[in-house]
Each structure stands twice: as C-alpha cells, then as structure tokens.
# Entry
Amino acid sequence: MSSGTPLNAIIGFSEVLKDGLLGDMTDQQRGFIGDIFNSGKHLLLLINDILDLSKVEAGKMLLDLELIQIPSLAQEQLVHRFERSQLAAHQRLHGRQRRARAASTRTPAR
# Structure
C-alpha cells in the first residue's frame, strides 16, 4: 500500500534533482537533495509498516512467526549497510571527477 501522491511526489522530484536531470548542483545542494530523497523513502517505509501493523491488529493479515539467529541477521545487515556506504562514496567520487573534467574542458568566459 502507498501513502498517496504528496509523499510520492516529494520522492520522485527529489530523485530527479538527485540524479542531475535538471542540471548541476553544488555539493551542498546535492547533499540536501539526497537527504530529502532518503528521508522521503524512509518515511514511506515507516508509513507502510504502520499500515501493515494496523492490518495485523484488525486480523486482516496473519503473522508467520519463525526463529531467527540474531547474530547472523545483524552481521548481514552490517555488511549490507557497509556495501551501500561504499557504493555511495564511489558514486560521490565519480560525480566529482565528472564535474571536474567538465569544468576543465569549458572555454573560459571572455
């Protein structure tokens, strides 16, 4: 289930900006847009979790309970977060290098 169009619009437009589809931004602007995008996605997940919990409480969704190994689950999550942070750092570096190359090839204004 989705939270509706306002939040989806915030996520969608911030993704357009984050991906640079509307032009270049400063590093600070890119950081702010990334925060807006990530916060919007996080909020959407929280809303969907709350909606799921309300379904469970209303008896419209059944839980499938199972035993899990907390240490292995925690390790998987840490590895996943580390890999995501490495990818994000690589993407930031690549973006900076691309912008530096583009700036170096521009003709100086006269």
Q: What stands out?
A: The mean pLDDT is 87. Residues 66-110 form one domain. DSSP finds three helices and no strands in the chain.
